[in-house]
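## Example pair
The file below holds two records. Each record gives the amino-acid sequence first, followed by its structure token line.
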Amino acid sequence: MKEKSRNQILLSRQSSRIMVIDDEYVLLNAIKKYLMARQFNIITCNSGKEALKKVKKEKIDLLIVDILMCDMDGYEFVNHLKNDSQLGHIPFIFLTAKGMTEDKIKGYERGCKAYLGKPFDPEELVAIIDNILIDEKNIKNINNVKNEIRALRNQINNCELFNTSLNFTTREITILLAVSKGMSNKEIAYNLNISIRNVENYITRLLHKTSSSNRVKLANYKYLSKFKKASDGNRTRE
């Protein structure tokens, strides 16, 4: 696996927000100071109930959750997250004095990214956090690319359907694109070397074809630009 660069790690730390939840004040503050010294953005809570309120208001990229808390344990806290469609995706790490194998299995069954028993090496916690944050951002980037490709395909399909069903001519597409850019009839006429009256006739025709009430509505067809190059290679139909 390619080693993560220092810049990548620092960027990930500075652009992410981590919530640490533990009812041991001394340990909670120690973790906060240690992680902030390494340029992490930290929010702390000393109870599960407080954390549930804050996590709904803050944008959190990672949760570090103690299991043995008084008001609600870490498992119960995570169950509340999983039942909320807006919060269930947040990755989390369990910190606990319960280090038996069955406890770890219970934690992993609930989806934790890591399970650290107390006492733990703070540098191990930092390494785990870095891996989780970078992996999560990579997944988000991949999903963003997939969504962009999906949106582009839908746009292309819609454009093909519009162009087929409405039977736009090359000149109509050219004028449609000009209108979508906010060009006036005079500017369009000058660029195409045709009369303003001719432009007005084209726009009237386009309004009728697209069932648009005004030229502002014609801007919705600006995605036809993706096909202009292909259209330019064909014979222009007036």
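Second record, same layout:
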Amino acid sequence: MSSYYLRFVGAEQLPKILSEFDFEHFFHLTPEDVAVIEERFRADYRLGPALQLVLLRAAGRPLDRFVVVPKTLLRYVTDALGMTGASIASLRSI
């Protein structure tokens, strides 16, 4: 396997801008993921578990290891969950 596919593994910081390729290959939420999150969490608590899931898959680290989550990643996850855009001051608010 190419090391390119491991480029986010172990990262404690993500680039400010992520490409469509990054979303498709590293931060993708499947319809099954979305269905499980919607089934198990209330609407106002879905963003945290979804971010946790994509970051664990891409970087192998939990959400609390990241200081900042790129706005593009927040937008992608909220769109995948069918939520309105998230505007947060810190990860603690998630």
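Notes on the second record: The chain has a mean pLDDT of 80. The helical segments are 20-25, 31-40, 47-59, 71-81.
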